[in-house]
UniProtKB/TrEMBL annotation:
Pfam families per the UniProt record, alphabetical: OstA_2
Sequence ranges assigned to domain Organic solvent tolerance-like N-terminal in this UniProt record: 58-211
Stated name of the protein: Organic solvent tolerance-like N-terminal domain-containing protein
InterPro entries assigned to the protein according to its UniProt record, in alphabetical order: OstA-like_N
Residue span of region Disordered: 369-420, 653-672
Ranges annotated as biased composition (Basic and acidic residues): 369-378, 389-420
């Protein structure tokens, strides 16, 4: 039998209950004020209704008990296994002390509150005030409804508003999430739970940590109202200060100071939307996607993210920055020289390297430079070393070799290259037994032992099968700016695997005072510096010196250029190569000759961004003309010169606006009269002659203006008659005076 509490230990209980009740109400009011901005209008209306209902006091009814003892002097009843009823709630426990006149009781052990068969609350102790309709539960408190279970050590529950409050730590468990925090509110009617201080939401997909949040156990939506970190199971982390996340559907919206990070990649945006199950995200305004490993940054105003493909697409003022090892002097200080790329649409993706068709560095075979040694002397030795380095590079990586060959060599094999029959009869006396090695040294030994059970045959994994690399695509109005290179095209592709920029559809590239055009252009970086350029089909290069109109031109089927220290150093033109270039006098002050050549190959040497030498190679035809004999400019077929389309700064890669062309001044068709005063001397604008109107136009104008002009002319004629009459009257008076004056003057 359970021992009942003695009256001596309960003399101070009513005062304690009243104090705890007042303290609980005061705390709830303060806490409600602190989070009032988080509560919807519906909940405030609900609280108002609850307050009105609380004013209608009802008595607690003792329905039954196994045993009771009444102290009439103090109006206190001690009960064993009592069953209380208060409005729509049934309250039971192992033992209780009931203060009938005060309309409250204290319950102990196996406390259970059942409200309207929807909410069940369990605890070890309960102080219940029937007037305030507030239950103060302590020790192993558990509140259960249809969607969640709340556990804590101390809980204040309002029976009218159905709001539970804890301040010493609590936990809510639902089907999809577990939420813990220091302070919390739970609204049973709306199924909303508000959490404050060290709030943590744990789901199968993520762990959410926030300072302040709201969670609805019915809809599974979580709302953030302060600094929040969402840690995904795959390692991604999102920081935000305002947003919402559904723990069931994994839909999410984030609207303030958003930052998503995953390994070396990060994404910022004013607004982020994400569907976790579909792996689809959307970013709006001030988007910044960055990868510190690839030294790449992507910006724009509208972006999309596809998690399964690891693909990001950005539009609306989209541009991209790539770090290089080049540097540029700014105020005599070296600054990193990044490559900036802008387009209508930019796309970046991590792809399997084996799925790409990689390019090797361009290689110039020495066989294609016949006769060049005699022309260049020591320069050929430098070229041989360059070829050797290029061949080593080509053999190191890549699947597609851009080896330059002459058309003759592609169709006519050399005699020494023709294969011969290398099979000869081998006689025993010619066999060198020291060369032949046993087969067991060439092949690994075959293990004929039985396989152990549970061990499966497997092939070694090739790292290239799983290796991923970054690929970048740009579509429409592509523009690139770098201090030593600028470009435009319709589309572009780049992959970090071969560090090659590929331009397609009407590409134009500018470098210092040179311009290159063609059907397709490749620019390859080595050690994050521009190393080479290749122009395929309809290749055309133009070079012009500042403040001159002399265009040096070369064209062919293929142009290959090499850079040194960020500047164009040499260029090879192959396949029906043509050139037009100008030479200067010995003092280098003026041009003296124009040279025009046709050959199989042309080699151009640059120095300080100017052409130093042009060397035609094999099947050369040409002519030289003095500059003074040129009657007009010599232009090769396919000549293009578009300096107005060249990006001049980083700003020009987005919303590029070419400089406006000055309007030609209007020329006068009439010659000035002799002795006329010039407009410039007087500061007045010179009047331009008007076109003489036709006779019909004059007649129509006269008919239209006659009603308006006639009254004015009649008035003028009338005044003219009046002036004549006044003159006739004044003449006899004025004439003697005038004669006298004339006399005196004489």
């Amino acid at each position: 039998m359970q021992k009942l509490h003695t009256p001596g230990k309960l003399n101070s209980v009513p005062g304690y209950i009243a104090f705890q009740s007042r303290q609980s109400i005061l705390f709830r009011l303060l806490f409600c004020i602190s989070v009032c901005l988080l509560l919807p209008v519906a909940l405030s209306a609900q609280t108002s209704t609850a307050a009105q209902s609380a004013q209608q006091r009802t008595k607690i009814i003792l329905q039954s008990s196994e045993r009771s003892r009444i102290i009439t002097k103090t109006d206190v009843t001690y009960l064993r296994k009592p069953v209380f009823k208060h409005e729509n709630a049934i309250l039971t426990c192992d033992s209780a002390v009931f203060y009938t006149s005060k309309n409250y009781f204290e319950a102990y052990d196996n406390v259970h509150i059942n409200q309207a068969d929807t909410i069940n609350i369990y605890s070890d102790k309960l102080n219940y005030d029937g007037n305030a309709k507030i239950a103060h539960l302590t020790e192993r408190v558990r509140m259960v409804d249809k969607t969640s279970v709340l556990t804590t050590n101390v809980l204040d529950y309002d029976m009218v508003s159905k709001v539970g409050t804890y301040v010493n730590g609590g936990k809510i468990v639902t089907k999809d999430a577990t939420i813990t925090s220091k302070n919390g509110f739970y609204f049973a009617n709306s199924r909303d739970a508000y959490f404050r201080y060290n709030a943590v939401v744990v789901t199968d997909q993520s762990v959410i940590k926030s300072d302040t949040l709201r969670y609805n156990t019915l809809t599974n939506w979580t709302y953030f109202y302060g600094p929040t970190n969402i840690k995904e199971k795959d390692g991604g982390n999102l920081y935000t200060e305002n947003g919402a996340y559904n723990t069931n559907t994994t839909y999410a919206y984030f609207g303030k100071k958003n930052l998503y990070t995953s390994g070396s990649r990060s994404l910022k945006g004013d607004s982020l939307y994400y569907d976790g199950k579909a792996g689809y995200g959307k970013a709006v305004r001030n988007i910044v996607f960055q990868d510190t490993t690839d030294h790449m940054m992507l910006r724009g105003q509208l972006g999309y993210y596809y998690k399964n493909d690891q693909r990001t697409v950005v539009t609306k003022n989209a541009y991209l920055g790539m770090g290089t090892n080049d540097s540029v002097l700014v105020d005599n200080i070296k600054q990193p020289d990044s490559l900036w790329l802008g387009a209508d649409t930019l796309e970046t993706q991590m792809v399997l390297q084996k799925s790409l068709r990689l390019l090797d560095g361009p290689v110039i075979k020495k066989d294609n430079e016949l006769g060049e040694e005699n022309r260049e002397g020591k320069a050929s030795l430098v070229r041989q070393q360059e070829n050797s380095d290029a061949e080593k590079y080509a053999g190191r990586t890549g699947k597609e070799s851009a080896v330059l060959k002459k058309p003759e060599e592609e169709t006519k094999p050399k005699e020494k290259d023709v294969p011969t029959d290398s099979l000869k009869k081998i006689t025993p006396q010619h066999i060198d037994t020291t060369v032949i090695k046993p087969v067991k040294q060439l092949l690994p030994p075959i293990n004929l032992a039985k396989k152990k059970p549970g061990i499966k045959d497997s092939l070694p994994v090739n790292p290239m099968d799983t290796m991923r690399t970054r690929a970048i695509k740009a579509f429409h109005n592509v523009r690139v700016y770098k201090s030593n290179m600028q470009a435009k095209a319709d589309s572009l592709f780049y992959t970090a695997a071969d560090s090659t920029l590929r331009w397609y559809k009407n590409p134009i590239i500018w470098s210092q005072s040179s311009q290159q055009t063609g059907d397709t252009i490749y620019v390859q970086l080595r050690n994050k510096k521009i190393n080479s350029i290749q122009i395929l089909q309809n290749a055309f290069a133009v070079n012009v010196e500042p403040d001159t109109a002399k265009f040096n031109q070369v064209k062919g089927k293929l142009i290959t250029g090499f850079f040194k220290d960020g500047k164009l150093n040499s260029m090879y033109v192959d396949g029906n190569a043509e050139s037009v270039y100008f030479t200067k006098t010995d003092d280098g002050k003026k041009y003296d000759k124009m040279n025009q050549t046709i050959s199989s190959r042309i080699k151009v040497i640059f120095r300080d961004s100017e052409i130093q030498d042009v060397v035609p190679i094999k099947d050369v035809e040409g002519a030289t003309t003095p500059v003074e004999d040129l009657k007009e400019d010599v232009i090769l077929t396919g000549f293009i010169w578009k300096p107005e389309l060249r990006p001049r700064s980083k700003k020009d890669i987005v919303n590029f606006k070419p400089p406006a062309k000055p309007k030609p001044a209007a020329k006068s068709k009439t010659k000035g009269l002799p002795g006329a005063i010039k407009a410039k001397e007087t500061g007045l604008k010179q009047l331009q002659p008007k076109q003489v109107p036709s006779a019909n136009a004059v007649k129509k104008a006269a008919v239209t203006l006659l009603p308006v002009v006639k009254p004015v002319t009649d008035s003028l004629l009338k005044k003219t008659d009046e002036i004549k009459k006044a003159a006739d009257i004044a003449a006899p008076l004025v004439k003697p005076v005038a004669d006298s004056v004339l006399k005196k003057l004489k």
